Amino acid sequence: MKSKVCQHPHSGMRSWGAEAITSLVKAVLNYKFDPPLHQNEKLQASVLAPLQELSGIPQSDIRQRQLDCVMQILHSCGDTLQQGWPLILGIIGALHRDHNAHLEVVVEVAARFGLQTQDLNVSLTAIGLLWNISDNFFQNRQRIKQDLESKTWKAGSRGSEELSPFDELWLCLFRHLGELCVDSRPAVRKSAGQTLFSTISAHGGLLHQNTWHTVLWQVLFPLLENVKKLSSSASTTRDELATGNILIHHSRDTAEKQWAETRVLSLAGVARTFNAKRRVLQQLGDFPRAWSLLLEYIETSALCPNAEVSLAALKSFQEILQIGRDAKDRINDDLDLPQTLLQPPSAEEIQRSGEAGTTPILDAAPDLADISLWTAAWKVWVNIGTNATIPPEKPEARGSGKVYVPSQSFLTALLLTFPPLFQHTKGRFAATDLQQFSRVLHAALSVPVHGDASPFIIPSYPDVTITPLQDASLQAMDCLVKAVHGGPPSLQAMYPALFDQLLTCVTFGVQAPSYGTIQAKAFGSIRGPQVDWVTMNFVPFSEKVLWMIVDLYCGASNHQAVIGAHVLQNIIRMLRLPLGLKYDCPSSSTWLHAVNALFAILSSGLPVARKHASEFKGMWSELASLFEDFLFTKHPSPPTLSMEDFQRDEGIDCKIVHLIRDDILPYASSVPNDFVVRVIDLLNKGSIHSAVSDTFVDTESIRKLREDFAKTCFETLLQFSFVSKKSEEGNITRIAVLSLLQRCQEVVKKYVDDERLSGKCPLPSGTLLVHLCDMHGCTCFCALCLQQMAVGDLNPVCVKGEAFALLYVLELFFTLQASAGRNCISTQSHQHSAAVVEESTPNNVEASVWQQVILLYPALVECTTSPSPQVTRALKDALHEFRDLLAPPSSHLQNGR
User: Taking every annotated instance into account, which residue ranges of this chain make up the domain Mon2 C-terminal (predicted)?
Assistant: First the structure.
């Protein structure tokens, strides 16, 4: 009878009939039967049968009351229905195309099942049903939309009249999934979060533009805020009662760690939504506010001490900056959903949303053209980098675990974010921004690796390669280098600051940076028990940065900012560190790269230095110091150095001398005189053979006396002692000549002193030759050695002016060769010397040179007491050469002028 009343055409009568049936059913189900009602299958079926009969009534108000009654039954006694479940499911399944108004109730019922706490599997199944419901909405969207729009159905109290019924249906689904995302059970939160963001990504294109405003401010941002609060207040201790005997991984054994997983999933999902639906969201009037709020959540999460959350925040930052992958890949990453569930977008989706859900997004970078948006993103990047890399005040005691040090993965992700962000901000990138970037980069590279993680990050010695963090740093710096080098004047003005940053990174290869007060062991020095912290190996990294500097300087050496900021001087000062250490560098490749870089740098820098002499005055002193530190290093070669490597290294030393000979001394007029003096002194010092090891002189060490280097230095001195007075190099002749004369005087005095100390015992034949060989780099003093010495290589082609003073050196050299038994002094050599004497007049010789030559005379006189007939014969010829030098000239001219 009551079911007939429910079909009455008068709505009031129908309402009373439905109320009577639903009230009776609920009252009977709540009655305490004995035995209980769920044990009497027939009685339970009889009670629910009238409620099921209402499914045959088409009026929507009756079906609404029926479903409301079903929901109340499920809440009050759903756990005792048992045999009544088929009838309840039959009621829900009786909905058909004429009852689309009840779809929201279906969603709410499924969500309520998800929120129940009695059975976890029921909740997970309910979330799966919500995904199936969303898929049904999508597959039958045309029929559902038409039916909803044909009715006068309106959204519930939480809806908005501005939204279409179909969009309100989706919002109902999103809201309920959002509630499940903050459930107290981790498994429910994870499943709900995956379902929510998968649903938004797969079917969000069906929503109207104004609906997205509601999605942002009523679903997504409330979700982030709730997760943030619950995560911050979660317990950090393990709850044994909650876990029971279940074995839980240490990364999820506390409520805090479980909420961290939820926080990661939620932030990543919102970031993906922003990225995939960026065109629609940008058209919202309050998009800048939403963008800033999302950046705020990213910054807060990135600075979270939980490593999982902080790293995920940076990945979300990368997501909204549109790095890397297609939207299709992003939808399924970390969601564990099959590809078959994601349907391709329809023409309707593309028309309504302006984009397809699986369209790649890399080509859409310029869409966010508002520089203020990217300026806000840059500030967030700087804040994260600055605050996350602040060194702890006190070093961490092993096992305390309270000091936060960012992981290498976190720092790598941070620096990988810079290049795409810079592409959006380089139009307003200022010098202060570069300083901020440099500080973040330096601090990030300074962070050591924890000893427990070092085997997984630092490659085993000696297979040393750059780490992911160092590779990300190189990418970031390369991005800046390309932008500055090829950019407008505002960017090119940053050349000096950019060079300073790169030079600092190069020094890390020799002196690894420190991180606050943390005591870290250097890479390769770990022995015995594992240490707390290990410093990264910077050798391959610094070498790559070094060649980045070479390329940049060679392309910008003529730029006024580079010249004015003394960049070349700074580069040379930096290179002094590895070149001075030489064999004491952490890696033998370091100084080899440095010296090769020096050659490349000077090939571009020296012409500029000569052209702008006033800007490079300080550079020459640094260069002279570099030559001295490298050629006469205080760090000898190791005993294990092979002869092949020694010869290679000596060849590099000779190459330095060739550089001085070919690219510096020929342009002495544009070089400071102090520098020329220092270089000549270096050549003079190098012309004396010297061992590269302080060990006892044995057969092997004798082979390492740098004979070729000494010969090269001596030949260079000779070359610039015989230059023409009219040439540009004439102004260095006096310096070279004085250096040689001083050396000659020392040789003669040393011989006389040795002769005196010998007493009545005569010195061995050729002792004076030994001292002179000390001057020109010979390493053994036998006839065979003398036969190998090419006298012609030492004879000048033309000797004029101040080079007259060198005649004594040559005559002494030739005579001493004869004293050793080699009668090879050619007539041509003597004739040449005589010709020079005739051409050299007192007026062509500078006073200081005259004085140095005359000072030789007493030393030669001391040799007259020598008992050696060979020496006395050589002395006689040498003294004959002094007949024109016994008196200084009456007037003094500089190079004949």
Answer: 103-765, 838-889
Tokens (6 digits) for 728: 């540009």
In this structure, which amino acid lies at residue 493?
A
DSSP assignments along 96-158, one per residue: -GGGGGGHHHHHHHHHHHHH-SS-HHHHHHHHHHHHHHHHHHHHTHHHHHHHHHHS-----TT
The runs of H, that is alpha helices, within 204-326 are: 209-215, 221-232, 240-243, 255-276, 278-282, 287-302, 307-320
Listed as own residue / partner, the contacts of 546-551 with beta carbons closer than 8 Å and 24 or more positions apart are 546/506, 546/509, 546/593, 546/594, 546/597, 547/593, 547/597, 548/474, 548/477, 548/478, 548/481, 548/502, 549/499, 549/502, 549/503, 549/506, 549/597, 549/601, 550/597, 550/600, 550/601
Are 408 and 472 in contact, with CB atoms under 8 Å apart? Answer: no
**Separation of CA 872 from chain center:** 71
Helix (H, G, I), strand (E, B) or coil at 611: helix
State whether residue 533 is helix, strand or coil.
strand
What does the pLDDT look like over 392-436, one tens digit per residue? 876 544 444 567 889 899 999 999 999 999 988 888 899 999 999
| Cβ–Cβ < 8 Å for 26, 59 | no
pLDDT profile of the chain (897 residues), mean per 10: 70 84 86 80 84 80 84 82 76 62 80 88 90 87 78 44 81 93 91 93 89 93 94 71 48 77 93 89 89 94 91 92 50 36 34 36 43 91 94 58 80 93 89 95 90 54 75 95 92 94 94 83 55 80 95 94 95 95 89 95 95 92 94 87 89 94 88 89 75 41 66 79 48 59 68 65 42 39 31 30 32 35 31 36 54 73 73 70 61 50
Angstrom distance (rounded) from CA 672 to CA 658: 19
Return the axis-axis angle of helices 468-485 and 495-507, rounded to nearest 10°: 160
Q: Is the pTM of this model over 0.85?
A: no
**Rounded Cα gap, residues 196 and 178, in angstroms:** 7
Strand partners, 450: 533
Q: How far apart are CA 691 and CA 706, in angstroms?
A: 7
Can you tell me the distance from the alpha carbon of 799 to that of 806, in angstroms, rounded to the nearest whole number?
9
In degrees, rounded to 5, the angle at the alpha carbon of residue 493 between the alpha carbons of residues 488 and 494 is 105
What is the three-class DSSP state of 534? strand
Q: How distant, in Å, are the alpha carbons of 52, 58, 86, 100, 168 from that of 96?
A: 15, 10, 18, 7, 19
Q: CA separation (Å) from 705 to 134, 649, 713, 771, 817?
A: 85, 12, 14, 16, 22
Cα 155–chain centre separation: 53
Q: Which residues pair with 534 in a beta bridge?
A: 449, 521
Asked if 298 and 313 count as a contact pair (C-beta separation under 8 A), the reply is yes
Reduced to 3 states, what is the DSSP secondary structure of residue 408?
Answer: helix
CA–CA separation, 594 vs 286, rounded Å? 54
CA 276 – CA 339 distance, rounded (Å): 17
Dihedral of the CA atoms 188, 193, 199, 202 (nearest 10)?
A: -130
Q: Write down the residue that tokens 């990047």 correspond to.
A: 381
CA separation, residue 124 to residues 109, 171, 245 (Å): 14, 21, 22
Domain boundaries, the chain: 461-516+532-615
Spatial distance between the Cα atoms of 863 and 255, rounded to a whole number of angstroms: 97
Q: Can you name the residues that pair with 533 across neighbouring β-strands?
A: 450
Query: How far apart are the C-alpha atoms of 417 and 425, rounded to whole Å?
Result: 13
Buried b (16+ CB within 10 A) or exposed e, 161-183: eebbbbbbbbbbbbbbbbbbbbb
The vertex-484 CA angle with 478 and 488, nearest 5°, equals 150
Q: How far apart are CA 389 and CA 303, in angstroms?
A: 10
Q: Are 441 and 412 in contact (CB under 8 A)?
A: no
Measure the CA–CA gap between 517 and 832, rounded to whole angstroms.
71
